[in-house]
Amino acid sequence: MVQPQEPEFEQAYNELLSTLKDSTLFQKHPEYEKVIPVVSIPERIIQFRVVWEDDAGVLQVNRGYRVQFNSALGPYKGGLRLHPSVNLSILKFLGYEQIFKNALTGLSMGGGKGGSDFDPKGKSDNEIRRFCVAFIRQLARHIGQFTDVPAGDIGTGGREIGYMFGAYKQTTNQFEGVLTGKGLSWGGSLIRPEATGYGLVYYVEKMIEKATNGKETFAGKRVAISGSGNVAQFAALKVIELGGTVVSLSDSKGAIIAQSGITKAQIEAIGEAKPKFKSLEQIIGEYSAFSESKVEYIAGARPWVHVGQVDVALPSATQNEVSGEEAKALVAAGCKFIAEGSNMGSTQEAIDVFEAERLSSASAGSAIWYAPGKAANCGGVAVSGLEMAQNSQRVQWTTEEVDLKLKDIMVNCFDNCLNTAIAYSSETNANALPSLVKGANIAGFVKVADAMFAQGDVY
């Protein structure tokens, strides 16, 4: 299943398998164990070269990939990441997580992931367009509304999806719901940019409600967030709307800390500047929102050890962005709720810290509760699924309709994770909160496994 030199995929594989084994799932249903070696190998991996011309007329070449991991529940579904770090290990880990994340939405979507080692930073609009056209012309023969429906990811926003959709349409002579994250006037869904961040906060709302028996909400909570892309921005705006205080954001070059709270105007300034590939350091020096309300910028840092006392932590940047030591710092800072807006945002060492604290707590009220990305951040792909449904019906739902469906999906996802964790728990501390990481892994895995048995993929 795991090949040499695939550390990210190995981490995702081991994290899933260890939680399944550390439950009563295989004792109650030993037949599920035979699914692991099958589900852990992609159904198909497509690799191709992408040749494009830069503004100087020089030929450039990048590696393109699509990992079509599992189609038991529906067409392959997952983003396209454009970043120099992209390799097969990272895409296999993301695709593997996507299988079970998509299962947790309750929608008919399989799991996949793709992208390229192309770096959009520093590229002109024309260079990005030429790359996107070249990329999708190679990928077009392998995707389609009933086969594989890619979406955006790091480096792939609305502009890139637009260029790719246009090239797909020209190549195939088909106008279909093949890419999600489209523009609102040509098949996109309202709430799609906000979906992952909003869904993350809706999930944590349920965590807070359950842990405190409905006595607490986001109101008055101090919330540390990493990242400054769509997920972080909209999670921060929703936290502020619900009465919380956002004390941090970050990017690849550093973090901003504001003990009195990052303002809505500052988040909107970041939202305006980030598509222009401006760093947070540049943004706080150029936008008036930051002269009116000062923030501290710390170069080369992630926020976790700098935020002071916090109640909630939402890693929303990239994989492995919370280390074991940073997890200990968050616990020491009083953090009670950790939920990933990014995929595999916490290292295994960090997860072990959070889970040990949860298990050792004398009561739910004093517990640390951790939610993995495959559950907490599934709102993004959920609304992608809703976009696919709207495309199939040739309709567009209102903001209120989509937001309500998103919230229902996140609430159902939380309840599924919670109830599954209780049903298959092997833990002896009756006072401990159920393990959401085990609940998410088991619930997603069982749904996919049942479909694979029914379709003869496993027998």
From TrEMBL:
<dbReference type="InterPro" id="IPR036291">
    <property type="entry name" value="NAD(P)-bd_dom_sf"/>
</dbReference>
<keyword id="KW-0520">NAD</keyword>
<dbReference type="GO" id="GO:0000166">
    <property type="term" value="F:nucleotide binding"/>
</dbReference>
<keyword id="KW-0521">NADP</keyword>
<feature type="binding site">
    <location>
        <position position="101"/>
    </location>
    <ligand>
        <name>substrate</name>
    </ligand>
</feature>
<dbReference type="InterPro" id="IPR046346">
    <property type="entry name" value="Aminoacid_DH-like_N_sf"/>
</dbReference>
<dbReference type="InterPro" id="IPR006097">
    <property type="entry name" value="Glu/Leu/Phe/Val/Trp_DH_dimer"/>
</dbReference>
<dbReference type="InterPro" id="IPR006096">
    <property type="entry name" value="Glu/Leu/Phe/Val/Trp_DH_C"/>
</dbReference>
<feature type="site" description="Important for catalysis">
    <location>
        <position position="153"/>
    </location>
</feature>
<feature type="active site" description="Proton donor">
    <location>
        <position position="113"/>
    </location>
</feature>
<dbReference type="GO" id="GO:0004354">
    <property type="term" value="F:glutamate dehydrogenase (NADP+) activity"/>
</dbReference>
<comment type="subunit">
    <text>Homohexamer.</text>
</comment>
<dbReference type="InterPro" id="IPR033922">
    <property type="entry name" value="NAD_bind_Glu_DH"/>
</dbReference>
<comment type="similarity">
    <text>Belongs to the Glu/Leu/Phe/Val dehydrogenases family.</text>
</comment>
<keyword id="KW-0547">Nucleotide-binding</keyword>
<dbReference type="GO" id="GO:0005829">
    <property type="term" value="C:cytosol"/>
</dbReference>
<dbReference type="InterPro" id="IPR014362">
    <property type="entry name" value="Glu_DH"/>
</dbReference>
<protein>
    <recommendedName>
        <fullName>Glutamate dehydrogenase</fullName>
    </recommendedName>
</protein>
<feature type="domain" description="Glutamate/phenylalanine/leucine/valine/L-tryptophan dehydrogenase C-terminal">
    <location>
        <begin position="189"/>
        <end position="456"/>
    </location>
</feature>
<dbReference type="Pfam" id="PF02812">
    <property type="entry name" value="ELFV_dehydrog_N"/>
</dbReference>
<feature type="binding site">
    <location>
        <position position="384"/>
    </location>
    <ligand>
        <name>substrate</name>
    </ligand>
</feature>
<dbReference type="InterPro" id="IPR033524">
    <property type="entry name" value="Glu/Leu/Phe/Val_DH_AS"/>
</dbReference>
<feature type="binding site">
    <location>
        <position position="98"/>
    </location>
    <ligand>
        <name>substrate</name>
    </ligand>
</feature>
<feature type="binding site">
    <location>
        <position position="152"/>
    </location>
    <ligand>
        <name>substrate</name>
    </ligand>
</feature>
<dbReference type="Pfam" id="PF00208">
    <property type="entry name" value="ELFV_dehydrog"/>
</dbReference>
<feature type="binding site">
    <location>
        <position position="196"/>
    </location>
    <ligand>
        <name>NAD(+)</name>
    </ligand>
</feature>
<dbReference type="InterPro" id="IPR050724">
    <property type="entry name" value="Glu_Leu_Phe_Val_DH"/>
</dbReference>
<dbReference type="GO" id="GO:0006537">
    <property type="term" value="P:glutamate biosynthetic process"/>
</dbReference>
<keyword id="KW-0560">Oxidoreductase</keyword>
<feature type="binding site">
    <location>
        <position position="77"/>
    </location>
    <ligand>
        <name>substrate</name>
    </ligand>
</feature>
<feature type="binding site">
    <location>
        <position position="230"/>
    </location>
    <ligand>
        <name>NAD(+)</name>
    </ligand>
</feature>
<dbReference type="InterPro" id="IPR006095">
    <property type="entry name" value="Glu/Leu/Phe/Val/Trp_DH"/>
</dbReference>
